[in-house]
Write a structure and sequence with these properties.
Structural class: alpha/beta
Shape: globular
Helix content: 40-55%
Number of domains: 3
CATH topology of the largest domain: DNA Cyclobutane Dipyrimidine Photolyase, subunit A, domain 3
CATH architecture of the largest domain: Orthogonal Bundle
Distance between the termini: 59 Å
Strand content: 5-15%
Largest sheet: 5 strands, parallel
């Protein structure tokens, strides 16, 4: 890579595509000569969906890695993107602006406005798909409406649509436009890092950036993809990809992931059922984005309108106990503590803790969505919103209202030796397996021997499972008679 002065240039606007490989917008931009690469932190337009603390932490280090890959020419800015881009276009001789599309409703609205206004100034604007296998408008039912059920969406829609493009190689050479007029801010000036030590816990568990994303994919495919279909349900097994934050920030493209698995299948390597199941999970990500695109109210409004009359409760004390992993139900608490200490939660646990919040505590799914949004490193508006509506039963292709996960049986089934529970709840680690899922049923002498003092160093259950389940079933069943 080298720098030289040129009279005209293009802007490439990095967003959720913080990589060099398979970056269609960047690859196209460098074909037109020198470029100005820029990242703009837009806290103003995001409003209600301003990035959570964990996301900002990841972004800080992802931008740092990207800047190093580029050779440190990345322009860093904070504020209104239209104003910032327009100022650069005014100060320099800019002929084109390139970016890759993002699909949050507020981003679509903002980007449309920017494109229209820049075009009026005779600046060509081109946008590309870098984060989805299929654009939302390319996978529709025969009548032109969006799918609301996953299986036909994926099997009839996606798999019968043109196959995703193969990933593109990174540019062989990038020529950067050099000028003294550009913004002199640094990544540190964005103030993305939290001011407390919580961030140090998260960083112990993750390596951030494009190179690490590729390494994670390789390790998953070589050692963890086989037995994925069954193994992914067990939080102590390594049969999960942990690619979600890398995909969200675009440090790796879904096309790269898709073809890494497909090519392996074509070579006859591994178990086909595991590979197919993993690809269907990538399909769920696509489905969530399609839902968000066609139903932009997804993050806030129930897709099934009858749920607008659901008798949610709000109990601040119980909500706080859930957030802190102090509900008295070990498998729930272990999941919530994994979230807080690692910025991640195993998918099986996401379903368990989500069910407990909305179907045992009857607390609105909005509260769970907000907490996950702030704590998850892979917080993604489409996935987070669609998943919480799924577990609450009010979304597209939602879980049946009568599916209420029992945390005791879920623990017995998916953490039978209590390894996961003991890892995140050390205060009950000495309990025998017979009582690790239900400490309140342990005899007094067993509790004393394990140094467990219920109500002191570990809480009693904050709610009764049987009565709370019955209350939830009654409330949900009443909704069936309501008109939508």
């Amino acid at each position: 890579m080298r720098f030289f002065l040129k009279k005209t240039a293009s802007i490439f606007w990095f967003r959720q595509d913080l990589r060099l490989n398979d970056n269609p917008g960047l690859i196209e931009a460098v074909k037109h000569g020198s470029i100005i690469p820029i990242y703009i932190l837009d806290d103003k337009n995001s409003k209600e969906h301003k990035m959570g603390a964990a996301s900002r932490l990841w972004l800080h280090y992802s931008l740092t890695q990207l800047n190093e890959q580029l050779g440190s020419p990345l322009i860093i800015a904070k504020g209104e993107p239209e104003e910032i881009l327009t100022n650069i276009c005014t100060q320099e001789v800019i002929s084109k602006v390139f970016w890759n599309r993002v699909y949050e409703p507020w981003c679509i609205k903002r980007d449309k406005r920017i494109k229209e206004n820049l075009t009026k100034q005779n600046i060509e604007v081109k946008s590309f798909n870098s984060s989805l296998l299929w654009e939302p408008w390319d996978v529709l039912k025969g009548d032109g409406t969006p799918y609301k059920v996953f299986t036909p969406y994926f099997r009839r829609g996606c798999l019968s649509a043109p196959f995703p493009r193969r990933p593109l190689s990174k540019p062989e050479k990038i020529i950067f436009y050099k000028t003294d007029n550009l913004i002199k801010s640094s990544i540190n000036d964005l103030n993305l890092l939290p001011n407390h030590k919580w961030k140090d816990k998260l960083l112990v568990n993750w390596k951030i950036g494009e190179k690490e994303a590729i390494s994670r994919l390789t390790e998953f495919i070589d050692f963890e993809l086989d037995d994925y279909k069954e193994g992914r349900n067990f939080p102590t097994k390594k049969n999960v990809s942990r690619l979600s934050p890398y995909l969200h920030w675009g440090e790796i493209s879904p096309n790269t992931v898709w073809y890494a698995v497909k090519d392996r299948m074509d070579l006859g390597i591994g178990n086909t059922k595991d590979s197919d199941h993993f690809l269907s999970e990538i399909g769920w990500r696509e489905f969530s984005y399609t839902l968000l695109f066609y139903f932009p109210e997804l993050p806030k409004e129930n897709l099934q309108k009858r749920f607008n009359k659901f008798p949610w409760k709000f109990d601040e004390k119980k909500l706080l106990a859930w957030k802190k992993g102090m509900t008295g139900y070990p498998i729930v608490d272990a999941g919530m503590r994994e979230l807080w200490s690692t910025g991640y939660m195993h998918n099986r646990l996401r379903m368990i803790v989500g069910s407990f919040l909305v179907k045992n505590l009857l607390i609105h799914w909005h509260e769970g969505e907000k907490w996950f949004w702030d704590c998850l490193l892979d917080a993604d508006l489409a996935n987070n919103s669609a998943s919480w509506q799924w577990i609450a039963g009010c979304g597209a292709d939602a879980a049946p209202y009568f599916r209420i996960f029992n945390p005791i049986t879920q623990g017995l089934k998916f953490d039978s030796e209590g390894v996961y529970i003991r890892k995140f709840i050390p205060e009950i680690a000495n309990l025998p397996n017979k009582y690790i899922f239900n400490p309140w049923e342990a005899p007094k002498d067993v509790l004393e021997k394990a140094n467990v003092r219920l109500g002191e160093n570990y809480p009693n259950p904050i709610i009764d499972l049987k009565s709370s389940r019955e209350e939830a079933l009654l409330a949900f069943s009443k909704l069936k008679t309501l008109e939508i």
